[in-house]
Structure formats: structure tokens, C-alpha cells
Amino acid sequence: MKYVSLYRIWVIVKMAVKFFAQVILFQRRHRHGWNEQTRLKWEALLKKQAAEYKRTALHLEGLLIKVGQFLSTRADIMPPVFIHELEDLVDRVPPVPWEDAKRILEEDWNGPYGDVLHKISEQPVASASIGEVYHAYLHSGTSVAVKIQRPRIEQIIQTDFKALRIVMWLAKHFTSFGKQINFDSLYKETYTVIGQELNFRKELQNGLYFRNRYEHFPEVDVPFYYSEYSTRRVLVMDWVEGARITDLSYLEAQGIDRKDLAMRLLRGFLEQLLQEGKFHADPHPGNILVRPDGTIVLIDFGMVGEISKRDALAVRQLVEGIVIGDYERVVDALEQLRFLLPHANKQEIKQVIELMIQTYLQEDLTTMDDAIVQQILEDIQTIVRKQPIQLPSEFAFFGRAVSIFVGILYILNPELDLLAASKPLVLEWLQKQGKEEEAPAASSPLQLLTQTLRPLLTLPRQIQQALDEPQRRREWEQEQHHQSLQHQLLLSKKRDALLFCLISAVALYISCFFSQSMLIYGSGGLLLVSILYYIGTLRSHRRLLRERMSEDGRRKGTKTGN
């Protein structure tokens, strides 16, 4: 097991070091400017890396599959081309032998499975990276689904978390993401969210929570869970007879109205997404079933997010700020929701949000000149990339859940006007929130409409101000660019030196582990040279920083004198 763990860590870390080295070398090679051809080469490199990650994940299984699915939701971390390549990374793992699954079942039940089950299928009906689902019957004749954890999966994932910690340390110190992402917090969030799936008792609690939440909700049902038979590695619930909600031929055969089904699904999920409390973070079609009578059934609550009361109030402030055109209120809400890291330029972010919303009010950009639209989008992307913005993990799962959910709605009803269908439900939610606590005006539909129209009266002036801002921003950026070229060059050299130090240290560790004397001397010498190179680069960098500080001091003195 020790050699297996070492192998997994080596493969994962080696792949990460390779990716980081490719990115650093590419950026250094094209640091003097990018054109369309450079952009295409960059996207080709990222696509190649994503494909390699997918192959490695499907080979090693375990945490890499879960992390790939997690990263595919993090548009604030990963480039779009990487996300697109990982979108179809699903749990495609072979089933474990029945004897291994049976052993876990009987270990957790402290006896033969026949004491609880009348019979059980020896082939799983579903196989994933953490658990497998079997169809069984209790002695009472009740049909149940039994979810059994894969053997040794907890040890495998804990090993992978060690590798992930190393990878995040590398990303923090050797990539540009280190300035925009709190990797310590991200690791903790990932460990918590994915680690919870290893404990089926947590999924049991979530299932019981949602069953109670939808108890008086006729449009949505949740299966019954058997607490007395459920353990950390085994979960037992009622078997659901039905089909995936996107099985259109099944819906037609059962005479289920797809448009009505879409509206019932919308109402059911808005109840989760607009209220404080837990929400189903993985609502893909396989986890939303439809019974022959049209009842919607939610299953699989291993991945669940939660909206706290404080966050729910901030979301409300965000919605109201957008509705009444108070963009400072919107930025404050984003800060409360932890979307903004320290040192974010709130004024600049406010201008971006205002520009985006006002542009949307201009008939979704369709009435504006194409060149202006393109310039606006490029300026928005530039500013967003420069700002320390993150997407907290709970909202990453929230955004992923909304994205998947909206996709299902449009499969059911391609003609659905989502905004029109959601508006009365959202207004009802705002009214309900307004009654519970004191809030600013805009608690009734009429007031909301009045406050929505008010910003439109100053729309031309606001758009002109927003369009003038990018030009001023570009002039400032050009000046800053010339001042920072030398700084970036030395910073890049320092990262390269640290990277070589890390690689040589890992090689030295492996050489010592396998007692290879020639490799020990070679890697040790490389480590010494790398350390000396890093010290020299560090001194040059510090000297440059002192010179820049002196120059800034002289400039401030000049401005004061003037």
C-alpha cells in the first residue's frame, strides 16, 4: 500500500509540475505581447493539458475524478477551454467484485446480509468513484436501493488529498492564480465538500432533511431512508420506480405534460435556491426521476450545499441592488458573500457591474454596434481578470446546480421564458423576506417596478460614462506596463528558480528512497545550484524593489511640491 500511495502522489505531482512548467515557459516566450495566433496556441496547450488530466483521472480514479468535476464548476479558477474539456468527466469506473462489496456490507451490519435483506442483485445498477448502488428486497417485501462504499476508497482519497495539497502549494507560489485565489481556503473547502461524501451518514442526514422539507410539497418527493440499516459505508433507501426527467420518450408514453413538468420543477427548485438552508448541489438528470404519475423524485444527497441566513440576506441585498440600480449595494453584497478578496478595487468592480447591467437593459446588446459591444466585453474581461475575485466553493456548487437545472428546464420546454416564469416567484420571495425583517423600499411589485424604471431615465448618461472609462483605464495600464516589465522578468526568474529547487528536492527524496547513489549526487548538485540561483535572483529582485520605492517616493514629493 505504501508503494501504491507513493506512485499516486508521484503521478499527480509530476503532472502538475509539467503543466505549471509548460504555462510558465509559454508565458515567458510570449511576454512581449499576444496576438490571435498566440491565443490559439495558448488554447491548444490548455486543451492538451485538460485531455491529459482526464486520461490520468480515469486511470487513477479516486479524487482526481471528483476534483475534475469540481474544477469544471470553477470558472473563476480555470480557463474556459479547460472547463469545456472537463465537462464530460463523469464517474466511469468498473464495478468492484461482489465478494468485496458483500464483505463491507456484512462488516458494517455485524453479520450475514441475509439477516436484513431477503435478496440483493450481485451486479450494481450504478457504479461511481465512491459508491455503488444495488437493488435489493427487505424480508417485508419492500424494494430498496442499497449503496455500498468502494473498498479502500477512503485511504485512496486521503492519499490523493496529500498530493492535492502539494499541487495547490505549487499553484500558490508558481502561478498567477496565487494572487487571486486563497489556496489554503480552497483546499479546506475542497477537503470538506468532497470528504463529506465518504461518510454516508452525512448523506442520510441530508436525505432526511430534504424529505422533511418537501413533506407538504405535492410537486416533489424524496425517498424514505432506513436509518437503522445505514452506516458510514452503507446507505439504504426506498427503491424508486421511474425514469430520468430528461427521458422524453418515457414522458410521452406516460402522458406527462413536459411544459407543466418544467414549471413544477422550477417552483420546486426555486424553493431551495431562494431560501436559507440546504440545496441539492448535484441535480443532474440521473438524480431527478419522474414516477409514472408525474411526481418528481429527488435522490442522491451526497453533494449538498448550504445557504446561511447571513448569506441569504446578502443575496437579497444583491437582488434588490440590481433591481433599484444601487450598484454600491450590489458590490457590498458581493463582498459580504466573500466573492471579493482583500485589495479588490470596489469602485472599478462597481463600474463593471453597472456597465453589464445597463448593457443588458439595452435589449441584450442587439441594438448596439458590434464593435462597441466587442470593446465593452473585452474591457469587462480585462478588469475582471485583474481584480482579486473568487467564487466561494458553496457558490461554485450553487452556480453549477443552477446551470445544470436550467439545462434540464430547456430540455423539457425549449420555448420556456425563464425570466418571465421566475419573476412572480422571485417577487413573492422578496415580499416574504421584506415581511420578516426591516428592509429598504421595494417590498411590493409596484414599488419594484417603479424603482426598476427609475435608473432607465439616466441610462444614456450612464452608458456614456461607462464607455469612457475603458479608454482611461487602457491609458493607465499602458503606463503601468512599461514600469513593471523588469519587475515581472525578475519575478519569473525567481519562480523558475524555486520550481527547479522543488523538482530537484523531489528527485533527491526519491533517489534516497530507492538508494540510488548516482541519482543522489546528481539531484543534490542540481538542488545546490538551484538554491544559489534563487539567492542571486532574490537579491536582484529586492534591489529593484528598493529602487522603485525610492522612485515612487520622489514622485510623491514632486506632486506635493506642485
TrEMBL record:
Superkingdom of source: Bacteria
Protein kinase domain residues: 119-490
Keyword DNA-binding found: no
GO MF annotation list: ATP binding; protein kinase activity
Transmembrane regions listed in the UniProt entry: 6-26, 497-514, 520-538
Keywords on record: Membrane, Transmembrane, Transmembrane helix
InterPro entries hit by this protein: ABC1_dom, Kinase-like_dom_sf, Prot_kinase_dom, UbiB_kinase
Membrane as UniProt keyword: yes
Stated family: Belongs to the protein kinase superfamily. ADCK protein kinase family.
Name this polypeptide is given: AarF/UbiB family protein
Organism: Ectobacillus ponti
